[in-house]
Amino acid sequence: MVNTPPDGVIASQDQQLLPGKGMDRITKALLDDFSSEAGIEKQPESKRFEHFAAFLTVNPYVNDTFDATEIASGGGDDTGIDAVAIIVNGQLVTDPELVEELVTTNNFLDATFLFVQAETTSNFDASKISNFGFGVADFFKERPALPRNDEIKAAAEIMSAVFSRSSKFTRGNPVCRLFYVTTGQWTGDRNLETRREAVIADLTQLGIFRSIDLAPIDASAIQRLYNQSKNAVSRDFTFAEKTVAPEIPGVKEAYLGLLPAEEFLKLLDDGDGKILKGIFYDNVRDWQEYNAVNSEIKASLEIPAQRARFSLMNNGVTIIAKTLRATGNRVHIEDYQVVNGCQTSHVLFDNRELLDSSVVVPLRLIATDDEDITASIVKATNRQTEVKEEQLIALSDFAKKAEVYFQSMAPAQRLYYERRSRQYSSNASVEKTRIVTPSNLIRAHASCFLEEPHRTTRTYRLLLEKIGKTIFGATDKLEPYFFSASAHYRIEFLFRNGQLDSKYKPARYHIIMATRLLMQPGAVPRANSHEMARYCQPLIEAIWDTTQAEKLLKDAAQIVDSAAAGDFHRDTIRTEPFTQKVKEMCQAHTARS
Fold it and tell me: pTM to 2 decimals?
């Protein structure tokens, strides 16, 4: 007997479905791999698939490794939305206060709203497309009609923070993208297309977006996105006007030359008309919008007579690739980074409609696996910018030591410092929950040892100003950084597995600070002293003892809870007086013990 799907539902075709299941074997295997890496194997398949879908669809939009649990919203009162990701100035924002920080730092807001609905069924349902669209439209209303769970409310707060600063939309209104993910096959059915177009039309009527799309993600797209998340970026282009550099120790090969701008754009485009953010080395100097220098570059492109002079007026771009193969004028590169020329790249990409064959880009193309050579090139080619020397040291010398030190630990305690964006993406042996991003390490260390957890969001830029000084100091001992990262890993493990109430998430860095204070209430030794290494040893041993760590973190959470009197609103906890209150309560607790 053949079962006919209900009206508006398109069944999957040509999928090798598991007996009695709605998911094909390949997708199931990929889901299991992801679940293992993300440490969510014990969760129900439907919940794991929501996280999987969120990761795959949001991953192309962000630079650093991220935890899909931070953007998941599925459950009761989710308004038909399983995940919400808000990208502001290239960063995944999970707190409203970070919006203000980014405005202060960049003086502009470029926002993208990403929504995900995920179904393990092997079909696309027209009614669910409509419900999904209605839920997204309701998300942007000042007076929503649908009830909201805590995750949707939190995302809506970030959304409100973005639109309250609409005067900073200098590059245009936000982008809105919806992803409907199932394990079926999208065939372009007219009924489904009509529903999709209706959702786009409804969102267009809001009048608040510069671009809107609803993308169906089927089994084939899932597999493609997963493979892309694992593989390094690669590109092929024509580089005719080049000269081979002399042989250099540690450099496999290098070329100097002039690359037509139209060819250069191939290295920047992500395939969907957006710039590849992840290729700009460690955000040493991110896109500075149209400051005086960038405005001059743009002006030179707007005047036809000056375009041909572009190569004479610009310092050019330096690209370092792990793999480079040149065959005649054709070049193939893999795992490459733009280590100098971020501003030039963004101006050219942003004004690509102005480019013609007369515009050529001075290019230094280098192939090397030697990290010391890479670091020296980064320093040398960025000295003409306002990047401070201590920042460059922090992003190279200190980071390299931290990376090696973290990986030198026994397997059960091993963490992976990600000093280069997504450097572990293609390494299947690395559990993604053990990856430590620079921003998380800065926040955790500043909370633990500088006792400034209130600055981790509201005034994060003040922490960045300490890089190379009291954070990532050239001679700092690595033990305190490892403990800070370990404490962060441990608390996220408890959150992920439901062993610590999610209400504590806004206060996670206060809890990390309190954990250290409960164990070592005395004065913190100098960061570069041998005493600091000895001071941290019992901390490290305790945080990697499963039973002891859980008790410590839960005790710390109780102290923070008492200090907050159950009120975890950011205006309550992200202040210096609240930090001082937590410290005093920790001191009182240890005095009684």
Answer: 0.75
